Amino acid sequence: MTSPAHLPHDALVARSLASVWHPCTQMKRHEAQPPVAIARAQGPWLYDTDGKRYLDAISSWWVNLFGHSHPHIQAALTDQLTRLDHVMLAGFTHAPVVELSERLGALTGLGHAFYGSDGAAATEIALKMSAHYWRNTGRPVKSRFVGLAGGYHGETVGALAVTDIAIFREAYAPLVRLADTVPSPDTRGAAPGETAQDVARRAAAALETWLAEHHETTAALIVEPLVQCAAGMAMHDPEYLRLARALCSRYEVHLVVDEIAVGFGRTGTMFAHQQAGIRPDFICLSKGLTGGTLPLSAVLTTGAVYAAFYDDDVARGFLHSHSYTGNPLACRAALATLELFEQLDALNANVTLAQRINTACAPLTHHPRVRHARQLGMIWAWDVDTALPDFARRYHQHAMARGLVLRPIGNTLYAMLPYVLDDEAVHCLASGALDALNATLQEEENR
Prior knowledge:
4-stranded mixed sheet; single chain; 447 residues; 7-stranded mixed sheet; alpha/beta
């Protein structure tokens, strides 16, 4: 059998459809829209096996920060491959995991990083740690969780419990111990005359009412700070985080910030919750952690939480594990990514880049069918007024035809971009996104 690496595009796609079950996909749809076979990637661009290029405007599911095939990260990985590829982290340690843990601790103000392989694993680690903490401190009844309406924290069974998006969890309802939800501070829910802070305070008041009744059985509140990504890039004011932190402290409930998607500069600061000036009890990290090269996640927590597990009794320890926990290669990639933030002064450079993108995308932002145009850091979103039930699928096809990877969430068009767009890439984004929107809306008119 011919190696897939040497097959033409259509043949490779056919073999893929015969052997691969693609994620988050109704596979039957690939009869009409086959997957695109990607051969290589460089900077913000993906190249298919026929040589056509596509601007990776959603950072390959929000993971890529400094472009594909970045030489600094590649050099770190190549060096690490000559030293240590993997060793179990139970009973062993190694330099990359130590250095990365120290760096993350300095950046977050939290410590004792615990590693997993993806964002859902980080969610489950944080939830288990929280509930186990209360058990270890003599309050085992505090074992339930609360999250925001529309929240998304992963799709494993434990993570689904705090994910409030029906399409992901309805089929698995018998397996899931559902958490409770409180209103989202989504600014789009503002009543006439309300500010974003007003919405945040109103949502916090609902949280206070809920905690007053349920805090004795609640282990933690989990929040995506500033942006609820899978809910259509629902953005909220930092005031909500400040109030939620105070309420969690008052009612003795842990605050878990899920920075899996919004961490590492996505919102303009290294971590989104820092814009509220708060310190969470747990932080979940993944996606951009390795710059989009290797799977890795981390959970950091407070000294008080760590101390509750430190005991002669093995059963009081945190016995969660993954085979590739703290993998040296992934840790080196993460360290190289953090080095790029310093070398490139990335957070400040992104301010200038965002201004250029805002200017270029002004025609899209002011399009007569766009509602609630919004931007935070390196995240953009535009809600589209359309009656098309399959707007996202149609738009995606038109964007791909223009060499642009954009996958709307429902009627919300969004971009979460790598931090390395030059003028050509900015133009491709702005012109392609607008043209794809007009082409999609024309289909609506022609129905």
